[in-house]
Amino acid sequence: MNSELDRPAVDDRVDAGGRARRFLSRPFVWRALAFVAVYLAAVVGLSLGVGVSERDLVGVGLAERAYYALGLFVLGGLDIGTPIGGPAPARSLLWFAYFAAPIITAFAIIETALRLFGPLKLRVRPLAGHVVVAGAGRLTVLYVRKLRQRHPRKEIVVVELQSETAFMNELRDLHRAIIVRGDITRDKALDELRLDRAHRVLLLTGDDFTNLDAAAKILRRAPDLAGRVVVHVSDLGFLRETAGSSVAHASEIFNGHEFAARHLVKEHLAARFQNTSYRDPVVLAGFGRFGRTVLDQLQRHASGSFGPVVILDEQATRHARTFEEEPGFSSDYVRVVVDGDALDPDTWRRIRAEVDVDRNDPVIIFGAGSDGTNLQAALAVGRRHPTAHIVVRSFRTSPFTAEIAQETGIHAVNLGELVQAGMPDAWF
Predict the structure, then answer these.
(1) Burial profile 229-251: b = 16 or more Cβ within 10 angstroms, e = fewer
(2) What residue ranges do the domains of the chain occupy?
(3) DSSP string across 363-384
(4) Rounded-to-integer distance, Cα 158 and Cα 144, Å
(5) What's the Cα-to-Cα distance from 76 to each of 72, 92, 110, rounded to whole Å?
(6) What is the pLDDT along the chain (428 residues), one digit of tens a residue?
(7) Domains 121-254 and 258-422 are alike in CATH topology
(8) C-alpha to C-alpha distance for 412 and 312, rounded to whole angstroms
């Protein structure tokens, strides 16, 4: 099952300057500029009085000259002969176009053939010190964006089983990653990735077992990569259960939600708890992977500073049983499990019957699967509990959410930004 972090989303806003720099760093931009420069050189040469040995250009218009200039890019060229007469500088321009135009065409044809038909080993053989990333989802884009900011020319190879993903175009066109379609756990793909020369490998697919299995195979093939293999495990219980494995010791296993939840608890909620004279009730509206990770981080970094915890989810009982197995509930707070819909007013009446959220202002964290559901529920609950401290988690930057949050006092957190901020410098 795909992690929440791999769900498609609209691209985050990028500053104009960074976008322009990345645009100009694309190879196709420079190829286009080279084509324009050579084409203009040919047109200018023909327009300044230079003739050709096999055509009479006396009296022809600009359209005919433009046509003959374009014909220079056809391999074999038009049968117009060689430059003759005219001013020497103009003749030099035309001779330059005669040689440069077919070279540009040949390079374009060769590159296209390699992209479409060339075996993977021909595309990655020259690489050394490159970064291999498995998966072309949101986590990969978050990592690659930050890597490109620090190392604009770093070679990146992205291995993806699907032919297209929501982020494929950005990875390929904007960040110039080599996209390889294949299964990162298969020997055929691993044989061709030049792992012996790779600088780092990040396994960021939406399947935890695939990531761990690939890590084991990669470390067996390239033991020198020990310590430079990063593995994403989205399930908190699975992460803890595999922590003692040899793969975990030889690689760096992380949980994206843990990055975000740790930042939320340590940088935001801990201060809230310290500034209140009572132990704040906490309502976790949504107890999927993000909600479970938030509670785990509360237990680790804010133990004893919060009061009763309400677990609200349409499958709260089942998720609570999973959490109880691993990592487990601590005993320093009362927990209430409510199966229900965060948008249903009756659900909140049931919560008020169990926990006195009116006497002490609660901390309510909306972290369900949908950004829209989170915001809608937060606004509805905020009207009933205007003094509550409400946190809304979203997957991406949303100007609308930011505007509503500023107007209503809701604290909006961006999961992608928190995960990206938590990535260690050593990965880059």
Answers:
(1) bbbbbbbbbbbbebeeeebbebb
(2) 27-117, 121-254, 258-422
(3) EEEE--S-HHHHHHHHHHHHHH
(4) 10
(5) 8, 20, 16
(6) 455 565 544 444 444 454 555 555 556 677 888 889 999 998 998 899 888 888 888 778 888 888 888 888 887 667 788 899 889 999 999 999 898 988 888 888 877 776 655 555 545 557 789 999 999 999 999 999 999 999 999 999 999 998 788 899 999 989 999 998 899 999 988 988 999 999 999 999 999 999 999 999 999 999 999 999 999 999 888 888 888 999 999 999 999 999 899 999 998 999 999 999 999 999 999 999 899 999 999 999 999 999 999 999 999 999 999 999 888 999 999 999 999 999 999 999 999 999 988 788 999 999 987 899 999 999 999 998 888 999 999 887 788 998 998 999 999 999 888 889 889 999 99
(7) yes
(8) 19
CB 2 within 8 A of CB 416: no
- Scored b (16 or more CB within 10 A) or e, 204-220 reads bbbbbebbbbbbbbbbe
CATH class of 258-422: alpha beta
Is the separation of the CB atoms in 97 and 45 below 8 Å?
yes
Tokens of 137: 């989802």
Q: Shortest CA distance to 303 belongs to which of 327, 286, 320? A: 327
> The tokens of 117 are what?
């038909």
Long-range contacts of 107-113 (CB under 8 A, 24+ apart): 107/31, 108/31, 109/75
CA torsion sign for 265, 11, 239, 157 is negative
Length of the chain: 428
Q: Which CATH number fits domain 121-254: 3.30.70.141, 3.40.50.1980, 3.40.50.300, 3.40.50.720?
A: 3.40.50.720
Write down the pTM of the prediction. Answer: 0.69
- Across the strands, what pairs with 159? 134, 180
